[in-house]
From TrEMBL:
Keywords: DNA-binding, Transcription, Transcription regulation. It holds the Pfam family HTH_1. PANTHER family: HCA OPERON TRANSCRIPTIONAL ACTIVATOR HCAR, TRANSCRIPTIONAL DUAL REGULATOR HCAR-RELATED. Belongs to the LysR transcriptional regulatory family. Residues 310-321 have a biased composition (Gly residues). Residues 1-59 form the HTH lysR-type domain. This is LysR family transcriptional regulator. InterPro entries: LysR_HTH_N, LysR_subst-bd, WH-like_DNA-bd_sf, WH_DNA-bd_sf. PROSITE patterns: HTH_LYSR (PS50931). It comes from the Bacteria. Residues 299-321 are annotated as: Disordered. It comes from Nonomuraea insulae.
Amino acid sequence: MLERLEMEAFLTLAEELHFSRTAERLQVTPGRISQTIKKLERRLGGPLFERTSRQVTLTPLGEHFRDELLPGYQQIQNAVTNTRAAADGLTGVLRVSFTTSWNGNLLLCAVDEFNSRYPGCIVEIYEETLHAAFEMLRTGEVDLLVGEVFFTDGSDITVGPTVFSSPRALVVPADHLLAARETVSVEDFALAPLIRPGGFPGKLLDRNYPQRTPSGRPVPSGSIAYGWQEMLTLIGADKGVTIVSLEGANFYGRSDVAFVPFHDAPPIDYALMWRTGQDTATVQAFVSATLEVVDARTLDPHSDAKGPRWTGGGGRNSARE
């Protein structure tokens, strides 16, 4: 039987073709790698690598051994991973919803990272309207939500880490006087009926859909809308305006509406949320995987793709910029 170090030393050296890099990856000395490979070659009866002062290459015998060994080694690694996941209770189905398409790419990256660690757990994702997403979380139909922080009062939903922030924008009819501006102000709420999302208590809506401007001017009340297309149709028909992430322009751009950023309003934060008291090991593991994706990636401002594109480099603060 091969020892663990023999398998790992051979397969890593077969990949790196460099003794020092192999030793660094396995956190041993280059001399230990060399001794282990020589011992393995004696056991197998022939050289596995050709060594010169300039390079290391696999011999035909080494290539044959790699091709035979690698599938079995990977099967062992998968068995260890799956067993650890089962021991941690990370099996079954984890249901995750999100409220905006521009967070979908991040969520898919998080699912990939989570599945690479816990292949025994299936992740189901759902894009829902604002009200439906929060209701599904409250009733237990989903286990996690990536959504706008300001739509919960924290009484039954725990707000976890923020994973993305976006500038706030006002969506107005394309022929509205505000559409020609480069930016708008929160005082401009007084200029048109404000369309609000349906299903939420007034105290939650008032945080971001106020009834008065900061100077005290009344904000006209517009229609109630439950979905994006309904809301945009109302705005395009000159029935009012509403507030959304500026990222919405990449996903819901229409000729009859305009997205104008605020110059005096805070960004919209999107966070991981779960039912209070239901932060299971699986939920915690998914939160951890998501944060690692956020910390390892940043938005690519030059991408042609719609919405946030998660690419290498940066960290959680970069994702907010």
